[in-house]
Amino acid sequence: MSTRTVEPAADVDKPRTSRLVDLLRAREAGIGLLIVVLVGLTSLDNHHFLSANSIQQLLSGAALIALLGVGETLVIVTRNVDLSVGSVLGLSAYIVGDLFKHEHIPAWSGFLIAMTVGAGIGAVNGFITTVMRVPSLVVTLAMLYIVRGIDGVIVNGHIVNPTAIPHSFTAVGYQNLLGVPWLFIIVAGVVVVAAYAMRSYRASRDLYAIGSNPAAAALIGIPATRRVFAAFVISGTLAGLAGALFLALNAQVDNSAGQGYELQVIAAVVVGGVAIFGGSGTVVGAALGAVLLHTIQQALVALRISAFWNGAIAGGLLLAAIAFDRWLTLRNARKLASAEGAHRNV
Amino acid sequence: MSDVMTPTPPKVDAPAADSGARRLWSGVARWETGLLVVLFGVLIFGAAESSVFLTSSTLFFMGINIGYIAIMALPMTFVVMTGEIDLSVASMLGLSGAVVGDLWHHGWGIWPAFGVALLVGLAGGALNGLLVARFGLPSIAVTIGTLTLFRGLAEILLGSVTVPGIGDRLFPVSLTNIGVLPVGGTELSWSLLIFLILAMVFGVVLHATPLGRSMVAIGLQPEAAEFAGIRVTRIKFGLFVLSGLLSAFAGILLTLQNSSVSYNAGVGLELNVVAIALFGGVSIFGGRGTILGVVLSVAIIGSLQMALTQMQVQPEKQNIITGILLLLSVVIPNGGEVIGRLRARVRRGRSRSAA
Amino acid sequence: MSRIRLTRHTTLAVATVVVASLSLAACSSSSKNSATNPTASATGTGIKSGLTVYFIPKDTQNPYEVLADKGGQAALAELGGKVVVSSGTQDTAAAQLPSIQAAIQAKADAIVIAANDPKALCPQLNQAAQAGIQIVAFDSDISCGSSPSHLFINQADTKTIGTSEVDLLAKEINSSGQIAILSAAASATNQNAWIGYMKEQLKKYPKMQLVTTVYGNDDPQTSLTVLQGLLSAYPNLRGIISPTTVGISTAAQYLDSHKSLLSHLTLTGLGLPSQMKTYVKDGTVTAFELWNPSDLGYLAGYAAASLASGSASLQANSSFKAGHLGTYKVLAPAGETGPSVVLGPPTVFDKSNIDKFNF
Questions:
Q1: C-alpha radius of gyration, chain A, whole number
Q2: Closest CB to C277 among A57, A163, A307
Q3: Taking 60 as the threshold, does the pLDDT of residue A274 lie above it?
Q4: How many CB atoms lie within 10 A of CB A11?
Q5: Residue C152 β-bridge partners
Q6: How far is C219 from chain A (nearest CA, A)?
Q7: b/e string for C137-152 if b means 16 or more Cβ within 10 A?
Q8: How far apart are alpha carbons C322 and C328 in whole angstroms?
Q9: Stated pTM of the model
Q10: Which end of chain A has the least Cβ crowding within 10 Å, N or C?
Q11: What separation, in Å, do the N-terminal and C-terminal C-alpha atoms of chain B show?
């Protein structure tokens, strides 16, 4: 393997990246703070909002979108996008449910199968995007339709009912370990592993380089094709895992599972500070973005605001988050610039 | 600064982008030839497989189904040409309808209600334009936000009510007739006729005016366009306003076609609008696309849906076919280049293994 | 140079693949549509044979409506006609329009529709009626006034559904405490009608207080989210009514996994026995209601065929035969509902009888 043929570039890259990391840390702290403030304000009005049960709900409710957000982040930092995640979730959830119903497969294999289905579709996305050089937005938009269509043909108006699903499988969806939902533990585990990998390994750092400047990345010898392909496969795999968790959580699945999730995921990722045109952002930010959006939704119900207001308020907050992020980036860039005198484009 | 915001056109578009205007034009013309062939294929297929495909009502029904969506695809084409995207169109369509419905419910006249709905379209478009063009926020993120916001506002206005409800006046029949009667002497629906007229205007603007050339330039090389004196900010702002306005107009048309409105009219159509533009050969990275391509794309998608529904093909399979067509529309133009590269790679691999 | 040659290939390739994928679709589609002219009265019931009835469900994947479609198919099979099921994949009016148009073009004899919007489909349905097609609505009614006039197959009397669910819950929580409703979409016609009657009925239980209605949009994930929000907003909630199959099963799954809530919280509503069996047996849910969706489709199929044959009419108190279900009487218009037929009182499912039902 020849992944470390570009040693000199690493040195050039280093100081910039670590500054970037600091900046993003601040940014994640900001989202975290926002969540805390929101929970705090809501619980002033409705103190039950701060109960253990309620916090558990917050964490497990945001888990699926957060999980999809991790994969989406990997793809988006390379200046690509994956719109097929919702359809992949739906297809893998149904396939596993159907296997439980008809083949009585063991519970653990459900996760493996779901992830395999997801990885397969991710590989198709990745192949067409990298080898055929087709814009990923178009590829994954087409795959959104195709995968949902295939799902529909397989589902054919049926539904997998709770009776068909092993209890040990659904347990993952609702049981707690020392008061912490399993669902949260699994997703948090994925986020932590991904966050560590994104900071520590050359290959994952390449993703940022590809996204921030494709031409330069090619010049210093980064194997962009392989890296982007891998990002799509991981995104697909995590969408597959999300499908299995969806099934564990809801104990039933029909053709509607995951419909429309793609835009929710992108919204969470963007709110989490991942630049939509690549090059910066972290998986922790994306996961926090998902938690924030979910908290907003929950808080609106807890504050007894009419359900009719949900959409408008969520949309307004989303816009505010994007604008705030931009303002923060510009301010930090200005600070950096004045501190250093000379600077490159930010 | 705009380095982060605007993707440099990647290699995909390179053959068209860097080989001069003549090659560009011929490349585009060839793409449309392809679409034309596909259209004929669909028409022949429809005629062969469905006994009622060649009846006049097919054209009218197709217009009813796709006309208002096609109208939104025109400004979408312009927006995408400049390297941006507007995902809020379907929500603006819904909001405009909701405004008409709410004002009508409160006793307003139909024309003043339309006027306010169009103003709301202008305002919503201006909000998108302000955030994207003026503040430099990524359009995909902004318009996902306004997608949620506009639909949310529509929901606040109408809630669970459908207008006209009990005790409301009916919409004027002379106007709602556009949903059941074609334009006199033809089989075109009003919405399709309006689309065709607008398409001509958009085609002239895009292909024969300095403004059109500016949009292409912005899409190909935003920084170069700025240096060349093109007012990038102002043009992008204007395009988002235009998109909001025409989406609101489409919302009015849909309200009249249905002779009623609820808050969720047109929900989820944004991706269909984008798909129409992309299938018409508009490059998602901007700078490439023609209105003729978009018109052909509308004709293909519209007639294919009619044929497949008449033939009782499951809607799930229709989705698969839509997806495959969309995929092919971008894969095939790249096919030659890819095969060349793969060959080179195989050759390289062989020499390596020989060594 | 080679680009030009490639282009010609390209064009050809596009065309070939497209045509190929189309013919693939054509092959896999079910029987070709050939609108045969119905011949007069073959069966003794005064119903023409060879009728074509278009069933247009809310979408083609809704498990509940798939059962109803099957009931309709069974009815038409008995009558020597056929059913074409046609709809979109999403619950929108726009997705149902092409199916109505296809029915008009195929010169169908009747349309049986579960409308995604009470009014948006009226203009095209009216066109269908003018083309001589009988209109029957089921599950979710249309509200088109007299254009077109149509027959509504009511799953159970709207008022009965609303009041009986409140009664069912009242019995379990001793008629007191805060309750909430977990509904489908905010614009769902039938749910809103039932909720209207629930509110009426609640006036009889002064100690029961309806605190809010939340909307899960018939999506499990959304239903779960609003349910969780509901539980944190109203910790003293005693009861939840969910008049939608997706809502009640999602809520049941949640309560099943949070058994501590069951000590003070009761769930009821409308659900499919097959989906709820687990929860009834383990005590999560005591009782809920529904009718047999396939009977509903069967009745709609008979009504459509009888109208198309002239052996039924929209006149109040006229009657028609519906196969093994017996004879049904057309009810006079009342309030917003036009002429209608009621399938029968809803069945209450509990431990004692749930094993007997397989839908």
A1: 21
A2: A163
A3: yes
A4: 8
A5: C137, C340
A6: 7
A7: bbbbbbbbeeebebbb
A8: 7
A9: 0.84
A10: N
A11: 48
**Per-10-residue mean pLDDT for chain B, 355 residues long?**
37 41 54 89 93 91 96 97 94 97 95 98 97 90 92 91 86 92 91 97 95 93 88 96 98 95 90 92 88 96 93 91 86 72 72 56
Rounded Cα distance, B113 and B134, in Å: 30
Residues of A near C (CB-CB distance < 8 A)? 46, 48-49, 51, 53-54, 57, 61, 64, 148, 152, 155-159, 161-163, 170, 173-175, 246, 249-252, 254-257, 259, 294, 297-304, 307-308
Closest CA to B264 of B274, B254, B276: B254
Q: What is the pLDDT of residues C202-224, one digit of tens each?
A: 999 999 999 999 988 888 878 88
pLDDT of residue A22: 59
Buried b (16+ CB within 10 A) or exposed e, B112-147: ebbebbbebbeebbbbbbebbbeeebbbbbbbbbbb
A133, A154, A226, A292: which to substitute to probe chain B, counting the most B Cβ within 10 Å?
A133
- Structure-token match 């739906």, residue found: A90
ipTM computed for the complex? 0.84
Give the residue with greater pLDDT, C39 vs B284.
B284
Q: How far is CA A276 from CA A68, A80, A249, B230, B282, in A?
A: 15, 8, 30, 25, 21
C92 vs A: CB within 8 A:
no
Token pair listed for C176: 């007191």
Give the Cα separation of A161 and A254 in Å (integer). Answer: 9
Residue type for A277, please?
F
Phi, psi of B250 (to 5 degrees): -60, -35
In C99-176, beta strands by DSSP E = 110-113, 134-138, 151-154
**pLDDT confidence band for C299 (50 / 70 / 90):** very high
Strands C177-183 and C208-215: parallel
Residue-wise pLDDT for A111-157, tens only, equals 999 999 999 999 999 999 998 888 898 899 999 999 999 999 998 88
Residue ranges with strand state E in chain A: 176-177, 180-181
| Least confident piece of the model among B153-162, C29-38, C60-69 | C29-38
Which residues have C-beta within 8 Å of that of residue A172, sequence separation ≥ 6? A182, A183, A186, A245, A248
Greatest Cα pair distance in chain A: 68
Q: Closest-CA residue in chain B for C31?
A: B312
How many CB atoms are closer than 10 A to CB B271? Answer: 17
Residue C247 and residue C259: Cα distance in Å, rounded? 18
For an interface test with C, the pick among B151, B175, B309 (most C C-beta atoms closer than 10 Å) comes out as B309
Residue A204 distance to chain C (closest CA, Å)? 32
Residue C15 contacts B where some CB pair is shorter than 8 Å = yes
